[in-house]
Amino acid sequence: MHQRNSVRNAWFDRYTGTFSLSQNLPEQYQALSILDGSLRGVGQIFLMNNPLSGLLLVVAVATASPWGALLFLGGSLVGTLTALLLGMPRGLWRAGLYGFNGALVGILGPVFLAGDWNLWVAVFTLLAAALSTPIMHTTIIIFVEKLGVPALSITFGVLGVLLLLLAPSVAYGRADPALIVPVERLGTSADPVLRSATGAAVSVNEGLLNATLRGLSEVLLMDSLLVGLLVIIAIALCSPIAAGLAVAGSLTGALTAIVMGADGHEIYLGLWGYNGAVVAVALGGIVLEAQWRSVAVAIVGASASALLFGALSEFLGPYGVVPLSLPLVMVIIGTALAVQGMSRIHAVDPADYSTAEQRLRIRA
Fold first, then answer.
1. 158-162, 262-266, 359-363: segment of lowest average pLDDT
2. What secondary structure letter does DSSP report for 144?
3. What is the pTM of this model?
4. Is 259 helix (H, G, I), strand (E, B) or coil?
């Protein structure tokens, strides 16, 4: 039985998990290493160090926006290449840690900037993706090396907000006026009725299904049920436990919003759940040791991230800006710092981050 489990675990690591088949490519396979690292960077958006997960996430975006998928992968590739050119540690860019912020910046352009297949939008976006690499390196030094917590997408959260503030002021930013406009909510109260894109009221079950799946897709700045389904599969390729936690986190964010009386249309679109999805994945067995207490903390954290989303949306709305990944970053890093002195919940050293399945096998 032990031998059978060992064979099964070896298969899991080789073809799923962290996909060890390509994890240690020799340095002479530089082009393949860069591509592998870039795809791992896309997967790292959900803390999945797996190129197949990254590839499926690119495919997911392509189902909604081929232009978006091109800049999505292009952003990760530019971020990874920039790390290589600047001499960043090989192990870090091979794991995708300099690619995921670039990927998120890359998809930001097609979503918030006007003009598909526009050269200037591509240049504007990919230059920002290149800039994300030295900023990410700085956050690694501060948060990972000094504080012992993950740097996550602090870079994208801050840089993305700055780009959205800059875009309307420059000709080649080509800000989409339909999306980057001040949000005035002070004169009207939120309508808590769950409503579809057409404004028609929907049942609670339909509303929660859409909120959960669209919440997963909104991590990639997409609004699509199909993208949400593909996101689940992409995460499950690396970690089935993480896939379940992502669904639970997105659902928790939606339920929290309903309890708070948030706008039903925003809930339906998944805007209150996307932060919770990543929070649950991170705290449920990657940033924290895999155990039931960590799952409980992950669900509470997912709920807290929804509240932060609402608060930051009100703060940034008058400037025509959304909070992006700032809520999830604040919750995950705050929790990782808080548990460092606890005896029953343990933080994992960033150098040892893997999947919940791998952590459970180590403990066994």
1. 359-363
2. I
3. 0.94
4. helix
* CA–CA separation, 302 and 308 (whole Å): 10
In the chain, what is the greatest distance between 2 CA atoms, to the nearest angstrom? 67
* Distance (Å) of CA 70 to CA 78, 122, 251, 310: 12, 10, 29, 31
| Cα dist from 160 to 233, 309, 337, whole Å | 27, 15, 24
Q: Give 252-301 pLDDT, tens digit per residue.
A: 999 999 999 999 999 999 999 999 999 999 999 999 999 999 999 999 99
Q: Look at residue 218 and tell me whether its pLDDT is greater than 90.
A: yes
The token pair at 119 is 């050269």
49 close to 95: Cβ distance less than 8 angstroms? yes
Which tokens belong to 132?
A: 């994300």
C-alpha separations of 309 from 74, 203, 247, 266, 317 in Å? 28, 24, 18, 11, 11
Return the structure tokens found at 21.
Answer: 């088949």
Cα gap 280→297, rounded to integer Å: 8
DSSP assignment letter at 362: H
Q: Rg of the chain's alpha carbons, rounded to an integer?
A: 20
